[in-house]
Design a protein that fits this description.
single chain; alpha+beta; 33% strand; eight-stranded mixed β-sheet; 311 residues
């Protein structure tokens, strides 16, 4: 059976690149893992944030498209992106978010886990999930966040759907995930052997209007494939339930296929290899603008079109 151990990355849309960098590095303490461009729109940055080494399951990326109409909330979208923190770090994050004037909600529980919902500068809903055992995962000290309190990677995402069944079928048949719980309007699906990025909540929103993509929304959710063969097996399973994928696209740090799942959310299947250290050392990740070989000849024109970023 095809199998994905979890989320590879999540890609969202922002308005202002500098504000985006400041929030995710200086407030949340994530590392800028890669600074490159949207390969289909090289006049736009593609910014990657994650853990110290840029492991799959920790990577949140952004396209800053300032002139795009703002997002419209509704069905057929990723409603929230959730990160793992250790349970002992809840008080630290509540104090930090308040001190930095970051909009956030009082803690609540879902499926027995304590959750702190907050908003980034564009209104994207993020959640810090206190998960037992998180303290055993690698942390990093940065921007006033100690390694012991730091974000460890993704907990998962929540998909807002008019119907849950067709999306659940994709998770089960193409990725090998299983339903692990139901609570109110939420159904939870999980990878049987994943550690991070291994949960998806399907939120039923039968009467919601159709979502509209723009700054403040998630563009797509990418699932992990160990290699090309695993990716091909997932694509074949999707065809078996009537879902077609794109051809494989070279993304330099991984290889991808894309499809729109039946609920309307764009999914990607991305290979774990080759990773983000193919053109930078571990110590220098994210420090320079990196371009794929086929765009290197256009570096001067591309750099002139991009705003300067301070980190």
């Amino acid at each position: 059976m095809p199998h994905s151990p979890g989320i590879h990355h999540v890609t969202a849309i922002a308005r202002d690149a500098q504000a985006n960098v400041a929030f995710y590095t200086d407030v949340l303490g994530l590392r800028m893992v890669k600074k490159t461009v949207n390969y289909d729109d090289p006049a736009t940055y593609h910014l990657y944030y994650g853990d110290e080494d840029g492991h799959p399951g920790t990577i949140l990326t952004f396209f800053p498209w300032a002139n795009m109409p703002l997002a419209r909330r509704g069905a057929g979208e990723t409603g929230e992106v959730a990160f793992i923190i250790p349970p002992a770090a809840v008080a630290f994050w509540l104090d930090r978010l308040s001190a930095l004037h970051v909009p956030h909600d009082v803690p609540e529980k879902r499926f027995g886990e304590t959750r702190i919902a907050l908003r980034d500068p564009d209104g994207i809903r993020l959640v810090l999930v206190a998960r037992p055992g998180a303290e055993a995962l690698p942390g990093r000290a940065a921007a006033g966040v100690g390694a012991e309190q730091s974000i460890r990677g993704f907990a998962g995402t929540t998909l807002v759907l008019a119907r849950q069944g067709p999306t659940a079928q994709v998770l089960e048949i193409a990725f090998g995930w299983r339903k692990t719980g139901e609570e109110g309007r939420f159904q939870r699906y999980a990878a049987p052997d994943g550690v991070i990025g291994n949960q998806i909540d399907l939120e039923l929103a039968e009467d919601a209007r159709q979502a509209g993509m723009g700054p403040g929304s998630v563009h797509h959710v990418a699932f992990r494939a160990a290699d090309d063969a695993a990716q091909a097996a997932m694509a074949e399973a999707l065809r078996g339930v009537g879902v077609q994928t794109t051809e494989q696209k070279e993304r330099n740090y991984f290889r991808s296929v894309y499809f729109r799942e039946p609920g309307g959310v764009i999914f990607e299947i991305a290979t774990d290899d080759p990773g983000f250290a193919i053109d930078e050392t571990r110590e220098t990740l994210g420090q320079k603008l990196m371009l794929p070989p086929w765009l290197e000849a256009e570096r001067g024109r591309i750099e002139a079109a991009l705003p300067t970023l301070e980190r």
